[in-house]
Amino acid sequence: MEVIPISQNHSILGLPDLVVERVDRRRDIHVWAKPAARPACLACQHSPVRIKATYERTVKHTRQGNQLMVLHLRVPKYHCPQCNRYYRHPFRGLRPRLRATDSFRLEVFVPMMGA
Ligand SMILES: [Zn+2]
Questions:
Q1: Residue 70 Cα, ligand 1 centroid: separation in angstroms?
Q2: How far, in Å, is the centroid of ligand 1 from the Cα of 90?
Q3: FRET partner for 54 with CA separation of 20 to 30 A, picked from 19, 63, 86, 113?
Q4: Protein residues placing their CB within 5 Å of the ion ligand 1
């Protein structure tokens, strides 16, 4: 385990609003992160909402040298006590159905297009 300062976390991940919980350097770099803040209800803006459940989502994020960074993201599912809706945490910079984040895709696809 390795402790890195907050400001460095943001430059490593390139994703806003994330708190890094753990970094594990193996063959690849594994980073565990979770949302820094609980958003207000997406439907009615009620705050605070309750965390109903949390699941982990794994995305390949970016490369440092030739190491792949694997992001293990804790994704809370919220319940709004006011309008009774359930919804997942909305991540900026992370698309709902793609396995890689925007910065990883850029890094992978831009050199291929230039070749
Ligand atoms: Zn609500």
A1: 33
A2: 15
A3: 63
A4: 41, 43-44, 46, 80, 82-83
CB 4 within 8 A of CB 20: yes
What's residue 84's pLDDT?
97
User: Distance, CA 52 to ligand 1 centroid (Å)?
Assistant: 14
Query: For the chain, what are the domain ranges?
Result: 4-114
Between the CA of 50 and the centroid of ligand 1 the distance, in Å, is 10
Q: What is the pLDDT of residue 9?
A: 46
